[in-house]
C-alpha cells in the first residue's frame, strides 16, 4: 500500500495515471480528491476510472485519522493541517501545476482553503461536492456527535447516517458501503475531524478567482442548497457553475456516480 510520511504523519494515498488508451485531453490535469468526515479515499473510486479515461491523473488521500491513515493524537487535525498535508503530498510527488482540487463535505472547506492560499498558481480549478460552509451552529451539532461517539463508538454513526444522510435515489448497497466506511473509521480520528469542522474558519472565498464547479444534492440536509449558494456567491471566479443532483443526499459520488462523473468530466473538458 502506498504511504507517504507527511508532516510526521503516515498518510495513505493513491495515484491513478491516465489510462493508456485515453485521448480526450490535450492538456492533462492532476485531480486531487479530498474526502469528508467518516469517509475515505474509496468514496471517489466509482468515478476515478472515468476521469482517468479522459486523460487526467488522479490522486486521492486518506486524511489523517481516516481510512488507512493511522491517527496520531499528538498531531491532531485542523483545516490548515489537512491543507498542508495535501500540499506537501503534491510537493513530494513533484506536481507543481494544473491541479484541480475536488473536495466533498469537510473536504470542500479544505479545497477552498487550498485555492485561497495558493500563491504559486498550482490550483487551476476547484470542484466542491456538498461543501460544508463553516458556521457558529456547527460547534453545538458536532459537540453532541463527539459525545455520542465517545460513549457508543462508531456503531452509533454507522447505524444512523447511511439512512439519514442519503437521498431517495440511494440504493441499499450504497447505504451498506457508507455503513462500512463509518464503522471502519477510527473513533478518535473521527472526533478529531468533528472538532476540525466545528472550529473551521470560513475560507477567504473572495480571494479565489479560479473556475469552480459546485455539485449540490437536492435532498442534502448536511450541506443544504442555501449554504452551497452562499459559498458560490463568495467566490470571485468568472466561471462559476452550480449543478443540483435530483434525489441525492450528502453522499453524492456514491449515490449518483454516473451523473457526477459526467458533470465533472464536462467541467474538466472546458479547462483542458
Question: Care to describe what's here?
Answer:
This protein has 272 residues and is an alpha/beta fold. The protein has one domain (3-271): Alpha/Beta hydrolase fold, catalytic domain (Rossmann fold). Helices cover 40% and strands 17% of the residues. It is built from 10 helices and 8 strands. It has helices at 48-53, 79-92, 106-116, 138-152, 155-164, 172-183, 187-198, 225-234, 252-255, 257-271; strands at residues 3-6, 9-16, 30-34, 57-61, 99-104, 123-129, 212-217, 240-245. Strands 1-2-4-3-5-6-7-8 form an 8-stranded mixed β-sheet, sandwiched between helices. α2 packs across α3. It is globular and about 55 Å long. The two termini are 31 Å apart. This is Serine aminopeptidase S33 domain-containing protein. Pfam families: Hydrolase_4. Residues 30-254 form the Serine aminopeptidase S33 domain.
Amino acid at each position: 500500500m502506498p504511504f507517504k510520511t507527511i508532516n510526521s504523519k503516515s498518510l495513505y494515498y493513491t495515484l491513478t495515471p491516465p489510462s493508456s488508451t485515453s485521448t480526450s485531453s490535450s492538456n492533462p490535469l492532476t485531480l486531487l480528491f479530498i474526502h469528508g468526515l467518516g469517509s475515505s479515499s474509496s468514496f471517489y473510486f466509482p468515478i476515478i476510472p472515468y476521469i482517468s479515461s479522459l486523460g487526467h491523473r488522479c490522486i486521492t488521500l486518506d486524511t489523517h485519522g481516516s481510512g488507512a491513515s493511522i491517527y496520531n493524537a499528538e498531531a491532531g487535525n485542523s483545516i490548515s493541517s489537512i491543507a498542508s498535508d495535501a500540499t506537501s503530498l503534491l510537493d513530494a510527488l513533484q506536481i507543481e501545476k494544473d491541479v484541480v482540487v475536488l473536495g466533498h463535505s469537510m473536504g470542500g472547506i479544505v479545497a477552498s482553503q487550498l485555492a485561497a492560499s495558493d500563491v504559486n498558481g498550482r490550483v487551476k480549478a476547484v470542484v466542491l461536492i456538498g461543501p460544508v460552509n463553516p458556521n457558529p451552529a456547527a460547534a453545538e451539532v458536532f459537540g453532541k456527535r463527539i459525545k455520542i461517539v465517545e460513549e457508543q463508538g462508531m456503531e452509533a454513526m454507522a447505524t444512523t447516517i447511511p439512512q439519514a444522510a442519503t437521498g431517495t435515489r440511494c440504493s441499499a448497497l450504497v447505504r451498506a458501503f457508507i455503513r462500512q466506511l463509518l464503522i471502519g473509521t477510527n473513533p478518535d480520528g473521527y472526533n478529531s475531524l468533528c472538532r476540525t469542522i466545528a472550529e473551521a474558519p470560513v475560507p477567504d472565498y473572495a480571494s479565489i478567482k479560479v473556475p469552480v464547479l459546485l455539485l449540490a444534492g437536492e435532498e442534502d440536509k448536511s450541506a443544504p442548497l442555501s449554504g452551497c449558494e452562499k459559498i458560490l456567491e463568495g467566490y470571485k471566479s468568472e466561471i462559476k457553475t452550480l449543478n443540483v443532483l435530483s434525489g441525492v443526499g450528502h453522499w453524492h459520488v456514491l449515490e449518483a456516480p454516473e451523473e457526477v462523473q459526467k458533470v465533472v468530466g464536462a467541467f474538466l473538458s472546458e479547462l483542458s
